[in-house]
Amino acid sequence: TQWLSHVSSVWPLPQIVIPSPERYQLKPQSFSFGYRRNLDTKHSCSVLDAAFKRYFSILFPGYTYANLITFSIGYPNQDSSERYKLSVFAGQASLNAETVWGSLRGLETFSQLVYQDDFGSYYVNKTEIEDYPQFNYRGILLDTSRHYLPVQAILKTLDAMAYSKFNVFHWHLVDDPSFPYQSQKFPDLSNKGAFHPVTHIYTQSDVRRVISYARMRGIRVLPEFDSPGHTKSWGKGQSELLTPCYRGDTPSGTFGPVNPTLPSTYQFMASLLKEVASVFPDPYIHLGGDEVDFSCWRSNPYIRAFMHKMGFGLDFSKLEAFYIEKIVNITSVLRKTSIVWQDVFDYHERRKFLSVVEVWKQGCYLCEVRRVVKAGLRVILASPWYLDQPGPTHNWARYYNVWPLAFKGTEKQKSLVIGGEVCLWGEYVDATNLSPRLWPRASAAAERLWSNERQTSCVERAFPRLQEFRCKLLRRGIQAEPLYVGHCKHEYQSG
Amino acid sequence: TQWLSHVSSVWPLPQIVIPSPERYQLKPQSFSFGYRRNLDTKHSCSVLDAAFKRYFSILFPGYTYANLITFSIGYPNQDSSERYKLSVFAGQASLNAETVWGSLRGLETFSQLVYQDDFGSYYVNKTEIEDYPQFNYRGILLDTSRHYLPVQAILKTLDAMAYSKFNVFHWHLVDDPSFPYQSQKFPDLSNKGAFHPVTHIYTQSDVRRVISYARMRGIRVLPEFDSPGHTKSWGKGQSELLTPCYRGDTPSGTFGPVNPTLPSTYQFMASLLKEVASVFPDPYIHLGGDEVDFSCWRSNPYIRAFMHKMGFGLDFSKLEAFYIEKIVNITSVLRKTSIVWQDVFDYHERRKFLSVVEVWKQGCYLCEVRRVVKAGLRVILASPWYLDQPGPTHNWARYYNVWPLAFKGTEKQKSLVIGGEVCLWGEYVDATNLSPRLWPRASAAAERLWSNERQTSCVERAFPRLQEFRCKLLRRGIQAEPLYVGHCKHEYQSG
Question: ipTM for the complex?
Answer without folding.
Answer: 0.88
